[in-house]
Write a structure and sequence with these properties.
The protein is mainly alpha-helical. Helix content is about 70%, strand content about 5%. It has three domains: about 1-45 and about 260-385 and about 415-420, no CATH class; about 65-175, no CATH class; about 180-250, no CATH class. It contains 19 helices and three strands. It is globular.
């Protein structure tokens, strides 16, 4: 029988520490510059608050590693139910920050419950997969899983936090893939996302994709009806996006979505495109090695808005250059790879899904946040895991990583036949 310290993945913990260190360095740079005296006191304290949350998260990892496997499986549905209740409570009693009513205050501490709900949702879905019976149809199972993810997503939308809701929606194909749902279902789920993105960038390309997708489905299945369904799903998305941009959304909402296609255009440059223009200027000016710690003109001059949260990647790009930015992405890539490896080593649906869910959350955040900072995607306000300022996000992202580490560490306790209550 192996002892716990012999099965603990120390490399993953080191990767977590590396990313947290990058975040603390970037946040310190944005809050302790020569111009810091002109910042509001609340912003100047961001570094110290983040350092406090790092301590809380570290303590959380230690607690998570001490808990047995049975505890996580027995409380998975309870954690999911608690997440839904907290989201509902935020809608009624929550505090609004930056337009999103997703914060609940506990004395001097405020928690963004939409971030914590990711952990509960992943645990709940993981237990659903672990308790799946062989007689349950793929379609019924897929619908149940999608409903479990969409419920918190809709509550987050009602809180006016579309960015976080997007993370929940993006988790659906990831979780379905790892649960063994046929690839055709996954393709039909992914096609609208691709078609929707292309609809914003180029309508002709979106239409061409819809036709090509339908032909691909037809060729793969030799079923004309499925091919038509593929065209209808992706083509319907193109039509829906066009209708939303032309008739449904307000002009300022349309401008925010379209600005990433050409942020320097006259109609965007001094409005919604300002964030992207300044972010690109910061990253581009960093060059290969960067301007040096606390030497970035865009960063220290506060030209980049939200630079300790949504645009923290531009701070790293300017002050540490291409090498620093690439190092951060490499660390993320190694972390995602190890999570997938951990899931495979556990050989149990519950542990595998928790690891896959963690990897999915991080991947969505990384793609959207970096894409946002480099003007590849619209600005929708999603933090960079472990690096952006935010105690709730750091606690949630660390929490799901800690659960994956604990399950992997005690993988010998996971029965190959699953766990049923």
């Amino acid at each position: 029988m192996r002892r716990w310290y012999q099965t603990l993945d120390y490399v993953t913990i080191l990767l977590w520490l590396t990313l947290v260190a990058f975040g603390l360095v970037a946040i310190y740079s944005t809050t302790h510059s020569p111009a810091a005296e002109f910042l509001p006191l609340s912003v100047r304290q961001n570094y110290y608050r983040q350092f406090m949350w790092v301590g809380i998260s570290t303590f959380g990892i230690l607690i998570a590693l001490l808990l047995p496997v049975r505890f996580y499986q027995k409380t998975a549905y309870l954690a999911y139910a608690a997440s839904i209740l907290f989201l509902l409570a935020a809608l009624v009693f929550g505090r609004e920050i930056n337009g999103a009513k997703s914060w609940i205050t506990f004395g001097p501490m405020s928690l963004q419950v939409s971030e914590l709900a990711k952990v509960g949702t992943i645990l709940g879905v993981s237990q659903l997969v672990a308790s799946r019976r062989g007689t349950q149809s793929d379609l019924r199972f897929a619908v149940t899983m999608i409903a479990m993810v969409m419920l918190p997503a809709m509550l987050v939308v009602l809180q006016n936090d579309a960015g976080t809701a997007l993370v929940f929606v993006g988790l659906i194909p990831v979780l379905l893939f790892w649960s063994g749902v046929p690839y055709l279902v996954l393709l039909l789920l992914l096609a609208p996302a691709v078609a929707g993105y292309l609809s914003v960038v180029s309508v002709p390309w979106a239409i061409a994709f819809s036709i090509a997708f339908g032909l691909l489905i037809w060729w793969q299945t030799q079923d004309r009806k499925l091919g038509l369904i593929g065209v209808a799903v992706s083509g319907g998305t193109v039509a829906a996006v066009a209708l939303a941009l032309l008739k449904v959304l307000q002009p300022h909402q349309v401008a925010r979505i379209m600005s990433f296609t050409d942020p320097s255009a006259q109609e965007y440059r001094y409005g919604v495109g300002f964030h992207l223009v300044q972010s690109l200027a910061a990253i581009g000016s960093g060059g290969l090695t960067g301007k040096g710690f606390m030497q970035g003109t865009q960063t220290q001059g506060r030209y980049v808005p939200e630079q300790s949260t949504d645009f923290v990647f531009s701070v790293i790009g300017e002050e540490f250059g291409f090498i620093g930015s690439a190092l951060v992405l490499i660390v993320f890539a190694v972390l995602l790879t190890r999570l997938i490896r951990m899931g495979r080593q556990m050989k149990h649906p519950f542990g595998m899904m928790v690891a896959a869910g963690a990897a999915g959350v991080y991947l969505i955040h990384i793609v959207v946040n970096v894409g946002m900072a480099t003007a590849v995607l619209p600005v929708i306000g999603i933090p960079l895991p472990f690096i952006s300022y935010g105690g709730s996000a750091l606690l949630a992202h660390t929490g799901i990583l800690a659960v994956a580490l604990a399950l992997h560490m005690r993988r010998d306790d996971l029965s190959i036949y699953g766990f049923y209550t």
